[in-house]
Amino acid sequence: MIAADRETSVPQDKPSRVFRKSRPMMPRQDAARQARVAALAWSTFGDRERVMAFLNADHPQLGGRPLDLAIASDAGLNRVEGVLAELAVAAQPR
């Protein structure tokens, strides 16, 4: 009976985190562009819902999802930054 109590009181080793090795890491340049466009979208909209909607929906002026374009290349990032700048100017009170 004592042996059974000891077995139940020993803590079991449980993994504390799940790590996916199968997915390749994003290249640093791509991650930097992703962070930059997310920060700029946040400063433009100031609201999580609007930021997520802008970054993840196809934009007619860009011909694709702003997040995908910004991550893909510096030219894509520049195009998305231009659209965000236009939106920021349009949102300013007159």
Describe the 3D structure.
The protein has about 90 residues and is an all-alpha fold. The chain has a domain at about 35-85. Helices cover about 65% and strands about 0% of the residues. The protein is built from five helices and no strands. The chain has helices at about 1-10, 30-45, 50-55, 65-70, 75-90. Helix 2 crosses helix 3 and helix 2 (about 30-45) runs antiparallel to helix 4 (about 65-70). The model has no long low-confidence stretch (mean pLDDT about 85).
| Continuous helix count | 5
For the biggest sheet, the summary is:
none
Structural class: mainly alpha
- Low-pLDDT runs: none
Share of residues in helices: 55-70%
Number of strands: 0
pLDDT averaged residue by residue: 87
Strand content: under 5%
- How do the SSEs run, as a string of H and E? HHHHH
Q: What does the secondary structure layout of this molecule look like, with pairings?
A:
Blueprint: H1 2-9, H2 28-45, H3 48-56, H4 66-72, H5 74-91
In short:
The protein contains five helices and no strands. It is an all-alpha fold.
